[in-house]
Amino acid sequence: MSKIRTRYAPSPTGKMHVGNLRSALYEFLIAKHEGGDFMLRIEDTDQERFVEGATEIIYRTLEKTGLIHDEGPDKDGGYGPYVQSERMKTGIYMKYAKELIDKGEAYYCFCDKERLATLKTEVVEGKEISIYDKHCLHLSKEEIEANLAAGKPFVIRQNIPNEGTTTFHDELYGDITVENSELDDMILIKTDGYPTYNFANVVDDHTMNITHVVRGNEYLSSSPKYVRLYDAFGWQVPVYIHLPLITDENHKKLSKRSGHSSFEDLLEQGFVTEAIVNYIALLGWSSEDNREIFSLQELIECFDYHRISKSPAVFDIVKLRWMNGEYLKAMEFDTFYEMAEPYLKEALPEGLDLKKIAAMVKTRIEVFPDIAGQVDFFRALPEYDVAMYTHKKMKTDSASSLEVLQEVLPILEAQEDYSNDALYRVLSAYVEQKGCKNGYVMWPIRTAVSGKQMTPAGATEIMEILGKEESLKRIRKGIEMLQNA
Ligand code: GLU
User: Fold this and answer.
1) Roughly what angle, to the nearest 10 degrees, separates helices 317-330 and 273-281?
2) Looking at the predicted structure, is the pLDDT value of residue 339 above 90?
3) Which of 41, 167, 200, 412 has the fewest other C-beta atoms within 10 Å?
């Protein structure tokens, strides 16, 4: 077999949606798994949907996620141009459309809006579309020439017979056969001279030597029409792989409303790129041993496209959060710190040792915005209930806590070195002298200095960050609360 060539063919219409990123990822993995080439083609023929800056988002995202293309608008591989509007200027689409007209597989259509408005309509996948009645197929050669000479606006339509069936093969769905009468004479070239996606994808995939076409299954129903075009030209049909739908938690198509439908949304929500890519790889694919954590390199090694599922994939933000947490735990501290710093700065007053706090939270958060909730007590002691001093396992209650806090206060007042180690030493000495368990002493102290049931670190580590003055203030406050309870 010839070298595998896949392409990512985004339309520059805005953000990078999770579904788009998954297509890019799978196309990249399928090519790289076999040592093939991954190409980028910009599909900008729909001028109405074009969004300024969207092409930059595509480049930026591919680079950031490591889906490095071997060929594209910025990397010539001999199959250019790689932007459809530039390809159009070469006349390629019109040339092939005319070839189809000569073969009787396509025809000029001069129907105006008024006439099209009178056609029968049908609802297909929730959208109302009008069924073209082949009116212009029957125009004589002279009529067509006269219309063209008069500069009458036209489109070029595919000519699909009313009888017979068309079969195409998808690697996941197998053979699919449809009645030709169900296929409409779709437009290949629009009045503005641009090709439609429906036509351009065929011409481009063939002329750019693409072997595997990977795309969302919203294209499944149009694929018979594409196969008819390949056959009409006598071209080899590429391997088709249509990917399952991605839904939200409510099993509805993942949409903007979910709040996490694009790569940019996820980055803003504090997810890291590697976790996002890893998670997206599992939206419709699984490895044989159901392993879940993969680097991009490991995905390249394991990615067998035959294991792509046909069932819809649910985008589960809880699972992504878990996965992101695993990536944070495994991350080098310096990298973690660099990414966590802005969140720490926002959550904490100046003057605290942010590096130490970062080390405390590294294994306790799933996404960076969780930092705020973990460290808020450093900024100010929260309101808390004295009931928190009572802990069954630590064998503490209000009375024991009051006693402990009153006894350690003078020790901590006399203590000059507020490093974690030094504090731990003096408090351990006190524990030993008292002949009790560690928790019996540390629990009330930690409660007093944090006001929280759960903290990212123990009492002495917290006091080290707070410093002597603030630690004592909080312990005195605890004593006062316990005395008044
Ligand atoms: N331009 C199409 C899209 O963004 C590409 C579909 C395909 O991969 O063929 O949906």
Assistant:
1) 130
2) yes
3) 167
